[in-house]
Amino acid sequence: MGFLPDPRSSRTSTGVASLFLFCCLPIFLVQSSTAGVIDLKWTVEYMHWSPDCIESVVMGINGNFPGPTITATAGDLINIELTNHLHTEGVVIHWHGITQKGTPWADGTASISQCAINAGETFVYSFTVEKAGTFFYHGHYGMQRSAGLYGALIVSQVEPLREPFSYDEEFTLLLSDWWHQNVHRQEVDLSGVPIRFIGEPQAILINGRGQYACSAAAHFDGKAVCSPKCKPEPLKVEPGKTYRIRLASTTALSSLNFMIQDHKLDVVEADGNYVERFSVDDLDIYSGESYSVLLRTKEDAKGNYWISIGVRGRDSDTPPALTILNYLPTEWEKHPNSAPPVHPKWNNYTHSKSFSNKIKALNAPKLEGYSYKPPPEKQNRRIVLLNTQNTIKERIKWTINDISLTLPSTPYLGAIKYSLDKAFDQQSLPDRYSNPDYDIMVPPLNTAAISSSAVYNLPSDVTIDVILQNANMLKDDHSEIHPWHLHGHDFWVLGYGEGKFIDAEH
């Protein structure tokens, strides 16, 4: 299998597969000495909202859902004064994809980088956005992301530096899944004995808007029967132009597939890093991932086209989210004259892996302000992480090498800074799972596991080789799909493999 030098901040393990990566920073952009300062004041609160035309309680910022889009330029300093107006719970916000160099306390992770902001309290996040790209933010405490605490964070390139592609205009689409059950009920169900699966989401939202119990796809003859109040906004375009579409997924469960009827998409950015440009009919996007695609509109379009986002990786009954690619001067309310496109089958992993294997880091030595570094030839340490389902005190838990994380009451960052050795478990975590003969294709025979708040201690300026090994769940013939996001770092994705990883070094 070939290796893919692929510097990105999150990547997905599909099916039962191995993922090889080095955790280092492969790409950087040289920034201008001129930088701006963005000062924001936010309040977080629960409020009544109708994301899919069914009224629910959502978590909003400054009275809006989703939260406001932050637009910045690479090198800008962002200051956000966040006040918690929730009555009975704390809150934190994670700035997904931001490296937080020099500001790790602003990462927004409860019990890791900070304590939760208590009801009525205020906390100031202050950090620099180092490079251009498509990012987002979300609640990182309990299930607050599922409650709607998220928004887009768009960072533009600083002049006179340029991006390795050009376009006329851009759109941002923030994708999410939505349940009618409130998140407190969901949390009780998922942590109970026995576990109660909350089921598939009722809707997929586009920028916080979707439709429940109303399929626009069934009415493509132009007769609108769905309420316009929660209908996703159309993308208004003109013929013969190039548009950048920024996609980011904040889903809690759903893997998604994005496509535009009868149009090609050129992928140019993945998770805040430029990639070698390639063309696709559709793309898979998993929770926590972001992409930029370029869309060249038709010169001779006579009407509108469907934009569709369907569920992948799960046999879901959630209907696709639909909106309109509206060719001006055609009215956006006029539906296309044909049915929406059909997404790849939910379990077509060959299609998924074909897309992933096309993603390669951009090697553009002549691009001003851009520097590409190839992966190191050797690693200093290798860690093999086996991802399984286990039981702890009769509760189903996801574990790594038979260990489930228990967050400490004192955040790791403060405990380490002030040498509070008793604040979290001090034992060393294993670099490999204990049973080398573990059969990844069957449910675990020994489902017992332990909880721990211990951490991996890694020195600075070393190369760590990490292998993510996916395995069967507790149920026969079932595995799961979920991306891995490394806070504060980019990394190279070196390759993928089928089945069980064989460590030649041991």
What is the share of helical residues? under 10%
Strands ordered across the widest β-sheet? 1-31-3-29-25-26
Average of per-residue pLDDT values:
89
Q: What distance lies between the first and last C-alpha atoms, to the nearest angstrom? A: 20 Å
Our count of helices gives: 3
Our estimate of the beta-strand percent is 35-45%
* Biggest sheet overview: 6 strands, mixed
Shape: globular
Task: Determine the structural class based on helices, strands and strand pairing.
Answer: mainly beta
Low-confidence stretches: 1-33
- Give the beta-strand count: 31
Radius of gyration: 23 Å
Structure description:
The protein is mainly beta. Helix content is 5%, strand content 37%. It has three helices and 31 strands. It has helices spanning 183-191, 349-356, 412-417; strands spanning 7-8, 10-13, 17-22, 27-29, 37-49, 56-61, 70-73, 77-84, 93-96, 122-128, 133-139, 150-156, 169-178, 203-206, 235-237, 242-249, 255-260, 265-270, 273-280, 282-285, 290-296, 305-312, 321-327, 370-372, 381-392, 395-400, 403-405, 450-452, 464-470, 482-485, 491-498. The chain has a six-stranded mixed sheet with strand order 1-31-3-29-25-26, with no helix packed on it. A six-stranded mixed sheet has the order 14-13-16-21-18-19, with no helix packed on it. A hairpin with a 6-residue loop joins strand 5 (37-49) and strand 6. 39% of the residues are buried.
List keywords for this structure.
506 residues; mainly beta; 31 strands; copper ion binding; oxidoreductase; Cu-oxidase_2nd
